[in-house]
Amino acid sequence: MPEQGMKEGRYTDILHVRTNLTSVTGDLMARTMTVDVGDELREFIDSLVKAGDYRTQSEVMRDALRLLREKQAESRLQALRDLLAEGISSGDAKPWNKDAFLMKVKARAANERD
Fold it and tell me: What does the pLDDT look like over 45-60, one tens digit per residue?
C-alpha cells in the first residue's frame, strides 16, 4: 500500500522516505527522498507494514538504514580488532629510528626512478 500522496500503477516500486532535519534555528524540517526499491523489496516492505511490525514504509526504511549503519560500524570495529590482534601476535616491538627509516624510503624511491 503506497504512502499518502503515492499513485497506484506504474511507479508502485518507488517509495517516498521522509527524513527529519534540524534547521540552524533548531526547528524540525521534513525532507522527502524518493527511493526505487524494486518490486521484491516493495512487497517485503508492504508486508511488514501490513503485519503491523511498522506503521509506515518510511519507518521500515529508517530502521533498515539504521541497521545497515550499525553493521558497517561493527565491520570497521572488527577490522580494527583484527589488525590489533595481528600486531600483538607479531611479537615484541623493535626500536624505530625515524632518520634511518626516511633514508631507506628515499633510497628506495631513488632506485625505483632509475
Answer: 999 999 999 999 999 9
Take residue 114 and report the three cell numbers written for it.
632509475
Locate 9 and state its grid cell.
Answer: 500503477
Phi, psi of 36 (to 5 degrees): -90, 110
Q: CB of 80 within 8 A of CB of 51?
A: no
Distance of CA 56 to the CA centre of its chain: 22
| Separation between Cα atoms, residue 71 and residue 77, nearest integer Å | 10
104 within some domain: no
For 18-39, write each residue's pLDDT tens digit. Answer: 555 555 566 666 677 888 899 9
Parent domain of 62: 1-91
What is the rounded CA–CA span in Å between residue 76 and residue 82?
A: 10
